[in-house]
Design the sequence.
């Protein structure tokens, strides 16, 4: 039986009809049309579905939508500022930290989560905390460069 | 190499990078159409059997289910990416041949109901004996997997160049060694998907598909659905990685179209990750034996190569794969006498197909490992032995390859220097070591039909340029590279170029993304099309400037007489003037480019130049073996790559870096583990390919050679680098702990076992 | 893969949660969700009711009273390894928490959830379709174990990272139900039965983890060997606690048996001795026989036993190094 819940996504409140067994990923993609968050494996092992929940990175494919009520959810669509790329996004573009782009939203949100936690993470910390996000195209090198660049440019965790 | 170009050679972000970082780039599963239905496939859970009866009533009765289809209802049309290797139906007819084989499909109002419905389909099988090893499958009495395919061997190739027997006789040493290369899954982050829609009035089906080969897909759909090609439109949205796994039609493509046609509604299929692991494609496991004859100084005189490829249940690219594996033994080293025997053998397991390198990584592993072992046995340095045997540009070739540019010799030196070869090889403490391995790869193929690429370039009134190209960008940046080539030719900037690509209803023909030929084929087509448009414009400008068209130059949005950039006019003004001179607008240039082939060959029958150009590379690796656990840490890999000229160095680096980590996965981490025909690790958790924390230090070194065939001298950079990281790493392991591994992957367990044997 | 259907409840108190568990035999607890939700997608866990306990207040805490460390079950793994007192006094716990899965799993996952995770096996943690190629296994409700081919006995491996560290630290837990509350050594919580690995009484919820005062005096470590440095479950995990002053030692393993194991033979050998190369090697040899793992994953049992000893060697070496 579906029930009505209110979710706050990218600063906007949405009233949605969901079933308890709908994951947050399903609701974001299918009910809100926010397809920037991707389904790579649906079991929490690749990070393509990463979103921010109260500023902290989470795997939306293994979260119930009903469990996200009362939280601030940010998806990749909520990162840009008035149509302009934020420094992290710009760094990914400039440094070539992406190829096919499928893992990219997850990468950017995870990097954002890391920068929310500490202002100047070391390269080691970045690698360790991003290791839950898989990429098959880039070999990771340019992604690390992009995050380090954003790190330097903004100084205080963007 | 100094760049004398304005756009080519620049490190530019991909033209769609902004969309990708914003999350607005649309992949197939992101697309929705009103009234869209969702499909799911029922798969065989036995490795081999006859389909006696399929009861779909349970599924049909489930509320929300709109359609069910089995192999019985679909046309009797076999399909395959290689026409002469067609052996697959979109949905199995009469027999299933592996756990994962497509048996039936349902279509429902939402994915949850579709999943439920699939469970309700009952299939009665008569289970047949199955065979899981290619060497067993070739034996007398083995279960027959495909009717009429003797010894389950669907393709064999045997070729001889020169006189191997004589070569061996003249050798000072002859060595024979056997190797095994394992099943690897491409594991692109985006699962396979398709969305189809049907216009019943015009009888036209449109399909958006995560594919590398829109035009081949169109052909296969047309044939299996029995609709004219002109009534099938394939559009490629953004693709989240392919690496070869999205070459081929899959059940999702066929069934999406099938239901769209039957039901008049759009239908979407998205594979689960498990389906990608089990029911798409993988790299062929191969058993290889190499016999090599050398002189005392390491000069290779003869080689005999025997390979058995475990094809799985269907052919896919079988003949091409096995031929590539063969032909690329004669490059990058001189092998004056070669006998090659390769067999593609069916087994009741997941299907082997094209995977980055396509048959060559396996062969390269064997050859490069053995070369190191030979070097050790005869007392020659492994880097020296490679340089000694290196091919050079312009030299005659046993199989008549035309090698216009070759940076192999330099690549060995560069890779060796970058890893500190002289100071480290044989000199590091026990547990640390360095190794290297070389390779070569075709930049597209000459020896195949239907390998021409077309492009149309239109110059717009405001100075913008529109490009139509059939090229399939799967994330490697093809569209960006083509845009750069066009921009360079026309003398405009990258941001002036708009590209529409990979839509069979709109863009010209292109074979697709495989064989690492996109930059060369589609790039050349685009360049020629741009040239044609430019020439029309130049004719007009020449008259205006009272100059000769041959003396004009286009650069930085201007057209001027060579040597006098202050004179001339802007690109925009030139077009305006052209228009006002009542010359026909828009200014269009079009071209097709077909790789030069002096004689038509299909590889199997005759020799000839295989590819328009060849890339060359060497990888060097430094490893550290944890003697407590057997884990190998790849500390650093340097890759020296001759790709002619890099159209976009940043994108080339991206290809090299990705290939290095992919090769490392193949060497140390990845294995599709199959037990009685069942894949045991069909998930990202259990099929553990490398994460950020496994990443080595990567150094990419350019070896520029400026090839005459490639657009602006470019050659391939997408696949070559994934040929030899594995042997480079395993060669380094030998240097570290003195153990020769001849099977991939080299796991911690295998290392500990060998170390203990060595001690005890 | 869609989740199966279930009823969803958000109790506001332990009593309420316990009542649901008592009334609904098919009810299961949802904490971080990183274990139960993938299992539900695989349809190996099919709760009738999912009880989200994250709305129950005061289950998320780390306190130190008189040297005793008390941790709430809903404390995230991240909070555990970021906590200064845990880092200083119970380093094995911090290491274990930071080794679980990936950064995301550490944000979402809780210590209670990690302790109470379901056992794992390569024949069990697979989709419903995948498992249909074989007869249903014991753990999934059938009659045969595909690992050991014996009926009725499930050999799935306990694979959590927190439990061995907690065992080496002599942890105790509090289990509360509507009617009752009991405090037990963590060790007795694990049944050793692969099919039902946890000794919950009906209606019980894990409400507190207690590490005694003595455990924060002494050295402790948790070493995890896995296929990759992130995301993966342990192939072998070894926890070690040592008080060289008292010559007292504790060893625990995970992923080598149906429950996390204290290595009592190793401890009996080490207790009362000073660490030395010879003592270490003998301990390592005993450790390699401390369990008989079976092939629930793709690694062979003999390799796992090997690694058990080797990780212990690394742990002991570290203690010896610190002692100078």
Sequence:
């Amino acid at each position: 039986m579906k029930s009505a819940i209110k979710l706050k996504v990218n600063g906007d409140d949405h009233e949605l009809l969901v079933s308890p067994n709908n994951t947050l990923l399903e609701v974001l993609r299918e009910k809100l049309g926010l397809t920037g968050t991707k389904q790579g494996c649906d079991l929490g092992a690749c990070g393509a579905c990463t979103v921010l929940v109260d500023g902290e990175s989470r795997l939306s494919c293994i979260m119930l939508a009903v469990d996200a009520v009362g939280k601030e959810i940010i998806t990749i669509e909520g990162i840009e500022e008035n149509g302009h790329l934020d420094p992290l996004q710009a760094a990914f573009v400039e440094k070539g930290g992406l190829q096919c782009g499928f893992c990219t939203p997850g990468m950017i949100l995870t990097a954002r989560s890391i920068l929310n936690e500490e202002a100047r993470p070391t390269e080691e910390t970045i690698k360790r905390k991003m290791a839950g996000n898989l990429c098959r195209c880039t070999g990771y090198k340019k992604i690390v460069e992009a995050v380090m660049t954003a790190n330097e440019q903004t100084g205080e965790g963007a | 190499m100094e760049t004398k170009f304005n756009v080519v050679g620049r490190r530019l972000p991909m033209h769609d990078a902004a969309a990708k970082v914003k999350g607005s780039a649309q992949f197939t599963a992101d697309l929705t159409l009103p009234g869209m239905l969702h499909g799911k496939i029922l798969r065989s859970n036995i490795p081999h059997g006859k389909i006696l009866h399929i009861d779909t009533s349970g599924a049909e009765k489930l509320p929300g289910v709109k359609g069910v289809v089995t192999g019985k209802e679909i046309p009797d049309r076999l399909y395959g990416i290689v026409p002469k290797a067609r052996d697959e139906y979109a949905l199995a007819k009469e027999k299933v041949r592996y756990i994962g084989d497509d048996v039936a499909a349902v279509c429902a109002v939402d994915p949850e109901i579709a999943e439920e419905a699939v469970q309700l389909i009952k299939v009665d099988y008569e289970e047949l004996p199955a065979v899981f090893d290619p060497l067993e499958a070739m034996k007398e009495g083995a279960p027959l997997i495909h009717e009429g395919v003797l010894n389950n061997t669907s393709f064999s190739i045997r070729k001889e160049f020169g006189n191997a027997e004589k070569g061996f006789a003249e050798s000072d040493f002859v060595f024979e060694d056997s190797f095994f290369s394992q099943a690897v899954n491409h594991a692109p982050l985006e699962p396979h998907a398709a969305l189809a829609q049907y216009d019943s009035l015009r009888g036209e089906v449109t399909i958006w598909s995560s594919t590398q080969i829109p035009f081949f897909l169109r052909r296969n759909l047309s044939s299996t659905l029995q609709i004219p090609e002109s009534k099938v439109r394939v559009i490629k949205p953004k693709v989240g990685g392919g690496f070869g796994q999205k070459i081929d039609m899959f059940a999702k493509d066929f069934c999406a179209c099938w239901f769209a046609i039957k039901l008049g509604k759009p239908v979407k299929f998205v594979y689960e990750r498990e389906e990608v692991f089990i029911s798409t494609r993988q790299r062929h496991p191969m058993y290889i034996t190499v016999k090599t004859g050398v002189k005392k100084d390491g000069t290779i005189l003869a080689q005999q190569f025997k390979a058995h490829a475990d094809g799985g249940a269907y052919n896919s690219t079988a003949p091409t794969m096995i031929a590539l594996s063969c032909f690329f033994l004669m490059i990058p080293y001189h092998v004056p006498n070669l006998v090659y025997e390769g067999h593609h053998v069916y087994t009741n397991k997941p299907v082997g197909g094209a995977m980055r390198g396509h048959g060559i990584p396996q062969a390269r592993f064997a050859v490069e490992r053995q070369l190191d072992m030979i070097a050790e046995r005869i007392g020659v340095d492994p880097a020296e032995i490679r340089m000694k045997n290196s091919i050079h540009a312009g030299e005659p070739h046993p199989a008549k390859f035309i090698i216009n540019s070759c940076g192999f010799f330099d690549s060995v030196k560069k890779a060796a220097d970058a890893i500190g070869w002289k100071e480290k090889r044989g000199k590091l403490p026990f547990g640390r070591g360095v190794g290297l391995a070389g390779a070569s790869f075709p930049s597209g193929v000459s020896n195949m039909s239907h390998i021409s690429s077309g492009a149309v370039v239109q110059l717009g009134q405001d100075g913008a340029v529109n490009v139509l190209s059939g090229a399939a960008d799967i994330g490697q940046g093809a569209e960006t590279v083509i845009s750069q080539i066009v921009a360079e030719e026309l003398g405009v900037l990258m941001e002036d170029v708009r590209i529409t690509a990979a839509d069979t209803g709109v863009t010209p023909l292109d074979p697709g993304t495989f064989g690492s030929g996109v930059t060369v084929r589609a790039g050349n087509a685009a360049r020629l099309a741009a040239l044609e448009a430019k020439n029309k414009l130049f004719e007009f400008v020449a008259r205006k400037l009272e100059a000769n068209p041959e003396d004009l130059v286009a650069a930085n949005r201007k057209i001027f007489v060579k040597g006098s950039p202050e004179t001339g006019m802007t690109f925009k003004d030139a077009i305006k003037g052209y228009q006002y001179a009542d010359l026909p607008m828009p200014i269009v240039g079009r071209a097709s480019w077909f790789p030069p082939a002096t004689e038509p060959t299909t590889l199997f029958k005759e020799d000839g130049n295989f590819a328009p150009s060849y890339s060359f590379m060497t990888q060097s690796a430094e490893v550290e073996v944890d003697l407590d656990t057997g884990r190998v840490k790849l500390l650093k890999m340097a890759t020296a790559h001759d790709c002619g000229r890099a159209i976009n160095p940043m994108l080339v680096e991206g290809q090299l870096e990705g290939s290095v980590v992919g090769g490392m996965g193949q060497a140390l981490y990845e294995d599709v583990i199959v037990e009685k025909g069942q894949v045991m690790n069909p998930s990202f958790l259990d099929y553990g390919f490398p994460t950020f924390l496994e990443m080595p230090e990567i150094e990419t070194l350019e070896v520029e050679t400026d090839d005459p065939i490639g657009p602006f001298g470019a050659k391939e950079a997408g696949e070559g680098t994934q040929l030899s990281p594995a042997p480079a790493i395993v060669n380094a392991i030998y240097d570290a702990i003195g153990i020769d591994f001849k099977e991939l992957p080299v796991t911690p367990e295998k290392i500990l076992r060998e170390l203990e044997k060595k001690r005890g | 893969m869609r989740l199966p259907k279930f009823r969803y409840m958000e109790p506001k108190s332990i009593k309420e949660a316990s009542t649901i568990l008592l009334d609904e035999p098919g009810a299961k607890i949802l904490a971080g969700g990183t274990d139960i939700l993938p299992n539900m997608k695989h349809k190996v866990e099919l709760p009738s009711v999912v009880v989200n306990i994250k709305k129950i207040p005061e289950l998320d805490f780390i306190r130190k009273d008189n040297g005793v460390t008390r941790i709430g079950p809903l404390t995230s793994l991240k909070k555990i390894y970021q906590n200064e007192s845990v880092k200083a006094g119970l380093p094995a716990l911090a290491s274990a928490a930071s080794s679980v899965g990936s950064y995301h799993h550490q944000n979402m996952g809780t210590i209670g959830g990690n302790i109470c995770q379901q056992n794992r096996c390569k024949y069990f943690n697979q989709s419903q379709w995948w498992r249909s190629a074989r007869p249903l296994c014991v753990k999934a409700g059938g009659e045969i174990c595909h690992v050991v081919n014996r009926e009725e006995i499930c050999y799935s491996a306990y694979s959590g990272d927190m439990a061995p560290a907690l065992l080496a630290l002599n942890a105790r837990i509090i289990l509360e139900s509507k009617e009752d509350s009991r405090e037990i050594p963590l060790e007795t919580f694990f049944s050793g039965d692969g099919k039902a690995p946890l000794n919950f009484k009906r209606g019980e919820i894990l409400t507190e983890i207690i590490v005694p005062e003595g455990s924060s005096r002494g050295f402790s470590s948790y070493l995890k060997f896995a296929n990759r440095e992130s995301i993966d479950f342990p192939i072998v995990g070894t926890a070690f606690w040592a008080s060289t002053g008292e010559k007292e030692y504790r060893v625990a393993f995970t992923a080598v048996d149906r429950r996390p194991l204290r290595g009592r033979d190793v401890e009996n050998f080490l207790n009362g001795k000073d660490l030395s190369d010879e003592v270490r090697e003998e301990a390592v040899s005993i450790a390699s026989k401390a369990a008989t793992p079976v092939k629930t994953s793709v690694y062979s049992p003999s390799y796992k036993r090997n690694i058990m000893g080797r990780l212990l060697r690394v742990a002991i070496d570290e203690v010896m190094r610190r002692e100078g």
User: Anything to note?
Assistant: Chain B has three domains: 36-128+189-241+246-279, 286-446+601-759, 452-593. Chain B touches chain A through 55 residues (CB under 8 Å). Residues 394 and 496 of chain B are 39 Å apart (CA to CA). Chain B has a mean pLDDT of 94.
